[in-house]
Amino acid sequence: MNIQSAPEGLTDGFHLVVDALKLNGIDTIYGLVGIPITDLARVAQASGIRFIGFRHETSAGNAAAAAGFLTRKPGICLTVSAPGFLNGLVALANATTNCFPMIQISGSSERALVDLQRGAYEELDQLSAARPFAKAAYRISRAEDIGLGVARAIRAAVSGRPGGVYLDIPGAVLAQALDATAAASTLWRVVDPAPRQLPAPEAVERALDLLATARRPLIVLGKGAAYAQADTVIRRFVETTRIPFLPMSMAKGLVPDTHPQSVAAARSLALSRADVVMLIGARLNWLLGNGESPPWSADVKFVQVDVQTCEFDSNRPIAAPLAGDIGSVLSVLLDRIITQPLAVPTAWTDELAERKARNDTAMRERLAEDAHPMRFYSALRVIREVLAQHPEVYVVNEGANALDIARNVIDMQMPRHRLDSGTWGVMGIGMGYAIAAAIETGQPVIAIEGDSAFGFSGMEFETICRYRLPITVVVLNNGGVYRGDEVAASGTDPAPTVLSAHAHHEKIAEAFGGKGYHVITPVQLESALVDALASGTPAIIDCVLDPAAGVESGHLTALNPKSAAAGG
Ligand code: ADP
User: Fold this and answer.
1) Residues 379 and 455 in one domain
2) What value does the mean pLDDT take over residues 1-13?
3) What domain range is 521 assigned to?
């Protein structure tokens, strides 16, 4: 059978999967071909779906997850069986943790052999392996169930709290032939995949009553708020209530970081002094001190807006849970607040403004330092200034110091323009996220990468060149994990944290037809970045930093057992 056109009157599993995806508005698949799914990619491409082929499945999965975050449609990752499936699973688990909608479709080996562990080619019980790491996991065992399986996967990925879904399709099902007319009737388009969820009136009253008692209110915007695509209503809510707000890293830009109500520059004070905190699409996980005191005050009360009701009370009591989708909940609250305005005491806003001014001055001083060789702040000052002129550029960011410092230094002006290591603090998302941002939005992307972080997905620079994507990778190269100057305690091997201090990452770009820049001063960095952005071609800027720049574990020193044992 010619795979791209089944014989007259017949179809097969390959075509049905593609038809079901297309019917549901899927226009891009991120993946890596091999047995048994190569023809699935061919059929998809022939049908008009864009297939983006990667060098490693984790990156394909990360791209799919980022596409899901940016578009609210499930990103699709296609992998081969066992090893390819397992590579993709890291990204699937990460998507689930971050609440990004994604579907990993993996081909699998012959069930009769796998289930009796007879030693099939790439033998693995993939469905069982995927289950703990996915929001849902399904297997399609008959071609006539493909429409059902795809519909179920889409619904599971995007409804309620979004997450990663695994869809297992054995090779035999893909090859199964069916009568085309009968098969077409087994497919359907999911109606309203993520229905709105309105809050209960009594929950709204409870939240408004609590907010009205606040003397030091604070709004925390999380990446769930960015995902919700309720940008106008969120901004109106913040501005109408006049409550100071703090964006979590991927919520930066929902309301511009330069907005006078942002208290990002007075974060510690805001957390420790706030008496009523409204969490909008943000969880009280480790990134917010698990709700404990410190960093929060002992008697702080929380309002929490979330689609996932079991999220409430997951760390500490939530005095006013608001179950619903962010757009609907904030619309209802706004209607009420317009007729019954809240007042934010000026003592509180003055206190925050004073601390902000002090911290802003300290930051300006740090950014002005003219260190030779460059350190993180000197390099990031340049990137910050270039990005201020280009608010449309998407920023991808990972690393330890490269992540922690860039998050504070780089202001965002537009929603969903920052993608980073997220809830797990995972390394390796860089190139996958950058590729998805470029593919899904058509806009330029700057990936700000620690040299160690870049290594996890660096080979995808070939993918970036192959698809000619407008991605500039800045490798903040201090020659090590955390830093590059550790001396080994004994022997001749390098210390565990040390990487190649004299690496020229820009040569990777040159190897694949991209532009390479090697910079050692802020002036060179600025010129390279401006040039790379203007050219719109794939580029790597190897930005040489002092190997002594950076601290172990970045801002997470307290989580490093070494410092915990030392009492801090
Ligand atoms: P951050 O890391 O930025 O603090 P989290 O990932 O911890 O953000 O929290 C995101 C939260 O947003 C999750 O609890 C998720 O259930 C919730 N969420 C995602 N989408 C929506 C939505 N449309 N409406 C309401 N809550 C949402």
Assistant:
1) yes
2) 77
3) 369-559
